[in-house]
Amino acid sequence: MKLWELSVKSAGELLKKREVTAAELCDAQYERIEAVDGGVKAFLSLCPERAHEKALAAQKCIDGGEAGPLCGIPMGIKDNICTSGISTTCASKMLEHFVPPYDATVFKKLEAAGSVMLGKCNMDEFAMGGSTETSYFKKTSNPWRLDRVPGGSSGGCAAAVASGEAFFALGSDTGGSIRQPSSFCGTVGLKPTYGSVSRFGLVAFASSLDQIGPITRTVADNAAVLNAICGVDPRDSTCADVSHPDYTALLGREIKGLRVAIPKEYLGEGLDAGVRDAVLRAAKQLESLGAVCEEVSLPATDYAVPAYYLISSAEASSNLARYDGVKYGFSAEGCKTLAQLMNRTRGEGFGREVKCRIMLGTYALSAGYYDAYYKKALRVRRVIKNGFDAVFEKYDLIIGPTAPTTAYPIGSKSADPVSMYLGDIFTVPVNIAGVPALSVNCGFNGDGMPIGLQFIGPAFSEAKLLQAAYAYEQSAGFSKMPVL
Amino acid sequence: MTSFETVVGLEIHAELATRTKIFCSCTTAFGGDPNTHCCPVCTGMPGVLPVLNQRVVEYAVRAGSAMNCEIAHFSKLDRKNYFYPDLPKAYQISQYDLPLCKGGWVEISSGKRIGITRIHIEEDAGKLIHDNVARRTYVDLNRCGVPLIEIVSEPDMRSADEVHEFIEKVRTILLYAGVSDCRMEEGSIRADVNVSVRPFGQSAFGTRTEMKNINSMRAIFRAVEGEAKRQSELISAGGRVTQQTRRWDDNRGASKAMRGKEEANDYRYFPEPDIVPIRLDDARIDEIRAQLPELPDARKIRYAQLGIAPADAQIITASRTLADYFEEAARLSGNAKEAAKWIVGEMMRQLKERSLEPEAIPFPASYLAQVITLCETGRVTTANAKNLFSLLFESGEEPAALVEKHGLAALDDDDALDAAVEEAVSRNPKSVEDFLAGKEKSFGFLMGQCMRSLKGKADPAVLREKLTQRLEALK
After folding, report:
1. Which residues of A touch B265 (CB under 8 A)?
2. Is B195 in the same domain as B312?
3. pLDDT given at position B464
């Protein structure tokens, strides 16, 4: 077995047994990147020298017997998570040369745990998109078929993990940006409960929806990374002051009697037959493990996508207003007036999709339209949240597809944003409700493309989500990696 | 010609005197080299988050309580979006529909209550520095994120004098509450002034104009008078006032239109998602309210009970420092009336002469109490006590030591007093004769002569006694 194929857990065991060093793991990753990233194009930047130093420091901890489960493990970080001294571009021309002087809390925690950052991963510009095609710099390919999109916006992260270019990665999920690319690339992606993980240092897209989470090859690895990044942060007041359990604790416990709901709205029109079959097979599999699956109804599912695009774009229009060419980032040259500087900087610095969202959000918040759009979207948000609450009164978890389709060919949906937006139908309700959800692979379609199964739970039920996903993963056993 | 009534409502912005900024731990200190009192949070760098300074909430609640407001159990922050280089996030975090405090009032001297619509918290913006020679503009973000409260009044004021008094009153209350330094020259308190006029007797309001960001009391006063006059003249000439924002140019003494209602900014307010709503229960509100000191109006009532004249109480309570000083001196000397007399008289005179604020009184209230006691016991004459008081401003020494050092003690030497009386009587036979003939005024002259030969060191009561006895003997 190649080093790059290992899970975080097994690599950690080899490190502890001194059968491999942190530096060797790090080198193996860069070799793998060298070999395949020309095709996958998962990374926007690499920091091999820094990584090597960190690997040596991690080795000292391992040698000193103080190493935790992530010590010495190489990782990728989405390029909207601030890394001090390392450019953080959000895959935008606007921040092409932006080097933050501070670390995101999650990055600080992972470095403190001894993880070694290999580089920053590609994404849709400012996390707006579902295919990583809106990146200003490059288009990432799906490791299972290079002519397919990896999903998005954390497409670089999912592709890097799926292709063996990183043991795990941190993505961000505003409307499905961790789960949908995980579905497309066959990785395990978790969007934690809003407030579980600090957002400090995550370049904001839609503040009330954004959440950072792990993308891994196994459920156990996902739990281990979540353990390292969760927890209250005095620098993020929306971060919940709750005590987090050890998320690996329930892994391996049986799920007999687990009450699982399948919303009929998640199996309706527009769903690929292959995806539908895989999800229903997964439900059977869970039943064979002792779970009880029943069909339920989730109201307002149809309104989730429009409500999501109004709320997220409204917040984005405000969050992205700071990029005006005055302080940092791209600044249009040769401007004669302030208005010209701001207009041209924003006109030239942002890509099409970002500008589209800014305009949509600005419109939704404008005097005279606020009640009809933004306020109404907030009402839908309430209805959706109540719908989840009602289901969770009777059920432990919800399952369904992560995305209505598998990964589609690059360029095939670029001209049709609405069909792209509709791909978010099963993921956005989760962000709107603030609850946790996880995507795990549940097989492959006829083209050999991975299919994602989504587990959704009530707020702060990550331990149970991971327990169920682990039980499913262990029994279903889709553990192959793409051939590159 | 119709005569018009002026109607004024104010939005007063006051900087809160917290040590750190509203959303980060940068200092709020005034001054400093440009862009040295800032960090990634107050400069709005990508990915950073604001964290609400709880002291800001506490101070605003104190201010609201002091102005008789209802304190919200649930309030939230909102984003006010607009582009300007001194606003690095391109939105100001403020409060829109759920302010921290609402529905209060402030009473002015006529007994009239000026309504307080609301008080909310928000962050200040930075400053632009224009270099007109190089035709360049620089941005200084030191002031970014300094906490402000905006106090919005009802349109209850009817003259520039009422406006002046209201602002002074608000200022006094904020100073008492210890929540703002209210230094106008540093821009720590400034006002947007809404003015309209209407014919006397009409109940409907006229169309108003708003003059933004006026930062001196004089300018506010002049702006109200000037704008009311402009509007009255406009209406009298058959014109109509248009609702607009105007800029008051205090040098020219006139306002100029900036933008009309149609061109008003659309701030696209929406709830700030980075900060959780502010929840305050009754216990917490009571706890903050309990931090409030006794306010000027309550003190005035108490001072009246001590026999202090209302006019004197007004002077003393205008400053919390002065009022606290008075109370300390009254307590230590056991003589509130004398303490008030000294503060209203000599203290105010000395402060004015030396251009000092009450905060700069160089000696403790216990020294004033000692001076009062020295007078009461006759150890120092009233005349010398004034000299002593003046000396207190110049040296750090205790009154007793100064009395010793400068020989200010009253004479308790009977022989010297007798000798002085004798000398005055023998040297001024004409005055003695006049007095014996019934001219009371001559007594004063003779007292003066005695005092002069004693260099003012005699206790006037004792001296008066001796002189009276001596003159009685001649009858």
Report:
1. none
2. no
3. 85
Q: For residue B50, which residues of chain A lie inside 8 Å, CB to CB?
A: 237
pLDDT in tens, B342-380: 999 999 999 999 988 898 999 999 999 999 998 888 788
Q: Which residues of B touch A90 (CB under 8 A)?
A: 46
CB-nearest partner of B273 from A80, A102, A315: A315
Are residues B225 and B366 both part of a single domain?
no
B428 lies in the same domain as B353: no
pLDDT range class, residue B438, cuts 50, 70, 90:
confident
How far does the CA of residue B208 sit from the closest CA of chain A (Å)?
A: 21
Taken in order B59, B60, B66, B71, the sign of the CA dihedral is: negative
The whole-model pTM stands at 0.90
B383, B405, B427 — which closes off a domain? B405
Distance from CA of A220 to the nearest CA of B (A): 29
Q: Are residues B259 and B367 both part of a single domain?
A: no
The nearest alpha carbon in chain A to B25 belongs to A235
- The answer on pLDDT for B421 being more than 90 is no
State yes or no: pLDDT of B261 exceeds 70. Answer: no
CA dist B217 and B164 (Å) reads 7
**B131 and B153 belong to one structural domain:** yes
Query: Does position A467 have pLDDT exceeding 80, yes or no?
Result: yes
DSSP state at residue B409: B
ipTM of this complex prediction, to 2 decimal places: 0.95
Chain A residue numbers touching B270 (CB-CB < 8 A):
314-315, 318, 365, 370, 374
For the segment B390-404, what is each residue's pLDDT rounded down to a tens digit?
A: 899 988 789 988 888
Q: What is the DSSP code string of B95-159?
A: -SSS-SEEEEEEE-TTSPEEEEEEEEEEE---EEEEETTTTEEEEE-TTTT-EEEEEEE-S-B-S
**Cis preceding-peptide flag for B390 (omega within 30 of 0):** no
Domains of chain A: 3-257+396-476 (3.90.1300.10), 317-374 (no CATH)
pLDDT computed for residue A381 by the predictor: 96
Paired tokens of B305: 């009970």
Mutate to test the interface with A, among B269, B270, B278 (most CBs of A within 10 A): B270
Binary contact (A208, B273; C-beta < 8 A): yes
Phi, psi of A271 (to 5 degrees): -90, 130
- The number of domains in chain B is 3
Confidence of residue B5 (pLDDT cuts 50, 70, 90): very high
Of A90, A317, A322, the CB nearest to B44: A322
Give dist(CA A329, CA A332) in Å, integer.
10
The answer to whether residues B370 and B264 belong to one domain is: no
**B266 and B310 housed in the same domain:** no
Answer yes or no: do B100 and B247 share one domain: yes
Give me the mean pLDDT over the B442-451 stretch. 86
Contact assessment for residue A205 and residue A239, using Cβ atoms and an 8 Å cutoff: no
CB contact under 8 A, A366 and B268: yes
Q: What's the pLDDT tens digit per position in B115-153?
A: 999 999 999 999 999 999 988 899 999 999 999 999 999
The amino acid sitting at B232 is S
Domain that holds residue B333: 294-405
Nearest to B91 among A321, A327, A366 (CB): A321
Chain B residues with beta carbon closer than 8 angstroms to that of A370:
268, 270
Q: Which of B285, B318, B347 is at the close of a domain?
A: B285
- How far does A252 lie from chain B, in Å, by closest CA? 37
Catalytic annotation, residues of A: 78, 153, 177
